[in-house]
Amino acid sequence: MPADAAPFLAPGIAWALVVLFSVLWIALGIVWGRRGKGDADDYMLAGRNIGLALSTATLMASWVTGNTTLLAPEFGYRTGLWGMFSYALAGLGLILFAPLAVRIKQLMPHGRTSGDFIRLRYGRLAWWVFMVITAVYTLGFLMTQAMGAGLLLQALSGFDYHVGMVVVIGVSTVYTLFGGMRAVIGTDFIQSLLIMVLLAVVAVLAFRQFPMPEVHARLISTHPDRLDLLLPAGLLIAWNSALFSMGEVFHNNIWWSRVFASRRSVVMTSFVLGGLAWMSIPLVTGSIGLVALARDLPLEQVNMVFPVMAADLLGAGGAALVFVVVFASLTSTLDSLLASTADLLAEDVYFRLLRPQASDAQLKQAARQMVVGLSVLTLALSWPRLDSLASVLFFTGALVASTVWPVACGLYWSSANRWAAIVAMAAGSAVGLSAYVLIAPYCAAVFSAAVSAVVMVVGSRWQPEGFDFNRLQEGV
Fold it and tell me: Domain span at residue 242?
């Protein structure tokens, strides 16, 4: 957005909305936090008794980022149907993880983190490789969300970049710190409802004013290439999006913590429903991008398609609606990242590596300290702006896609070899990063996952390892 362009929402209204929702999230976080037992397991995993509605909502809300509500319309506007569909395919990560989630719950009923699985299944060296990949991905994801918060709130309301970033991270940190996983899941439930309802309002209004047949006819006459479902680049981007999302979900402790926190009877259903619910978001917002394209809507900055359309349809009310959606999207992702990463560091590094004699109270305190430490580190790394947030995400995709097959094979094959897992993650990451640099960023995850799969399968077939799955319950 040009520096001299007027924001979509008056700063006074924006500040009122920020104060309103910040107070609401923090108050709810404190209240929900006090309902728990007070031990580390309750703080980190909400008592392991989350039902279907809360489990589905937190999965969907954690996967909805500021990118989902703003980049999906841009993809639809820039590349048409494939842009919209390829972004929506990221929901496959949650859906395909559903059967693995049931398996995890069965094999590790008392597990806490994804690191627990890698350490027990493949050993300490594989754990180190996995943790390096996780650290790079998590810091990259935290940075994109923090910088996205600053940039989006600045574009929408005129907030200073650093002020917007500090506000969003600060609010997410406070209620996560006090309420732990209960606060994260509870606020995610409300945030998911807000996002779904408000996006539906914009979409309904858009297609009431500009019916789909009219939009289709206009695109056929002016941009027929945007409706081509055989576009080679679109197919490649779609594959990359699906594999990238699988890597993100299969390895990241956000989703493993949801498995451990949910009741066994609802785990599979919640992941399937959460993935389907999430896929509706980029499809709805991407279709709004198609409407804007059909109308030849003038745009000073193409990633502002959604705010421009909302303001065009609803005036100041539409701008306020977009602001609430973006604020809820950012906080729902940041709280999950902070909580799950803090749990991973507290459990795998502090407890398992540094202080195995730590008490339950010390483990809980370590998790809380990790939340604050991660917030401070994220602010420090995100203070200078980067030119491209998407490049950071594509870079991490080359790494996380290499973990898909070691995780999947390790859960089902007793013959999955630890050295094959180590080489699969290392080789997949190396090839994926090479493809990122030498070919194109959006194909990195495809190459990484392909190489990892070949290494994992061939290595395990060549030298099978007889693993006893009962060992996954040891030391957890």
Answer: 11-390
Q: What are phi and psi of 352, to 5 degrees?
A: -75, -30
Q: Which residue ranges of the chain lie beneath pLDDT 50?
A: 1-3
Q: What residues contact residue 327 under an 8 Å CB cut-off, 6+ apart?
A: 17, 18, 21, 153, 168
Q: In whole angstroms, what is the distance from residue 65 CA to residue 68 CA?
A: 5
Distance CA 317, CA 431 (A): 48
For residue 385, give the CATH number of its domain.
1.20.1730.10
Would you say residue 348 lies in a domain? yes
Report the number of distinct structural domains present in the chain: 1
Measured CA to CA, the distance from residue 400 to residue 380 in angstroms comes to 24
Within a domain: 351:
yes
Distance CA 31, CA 87 (A): 36
- Give one DSSP letter per residue of 276-316, joined into a string: HHHHHHHHHHHHHHHHHHHTT---SSGGGHHHHHHHHHHTH
Judge whether 223 and 147 are in contact, CB under 8 Å. Answer: no
Q: Write out the H or E segment, with its range, that includes residue 347.
A: none
Provide the β-strand partners of residue 262: 50
What pLDDT digit, counting tens, does each position of 205-264 carry?
Answer: 878 888 888 887 888 888 777 776 666 666 667 776 777 788 888 988 999 999 999 999
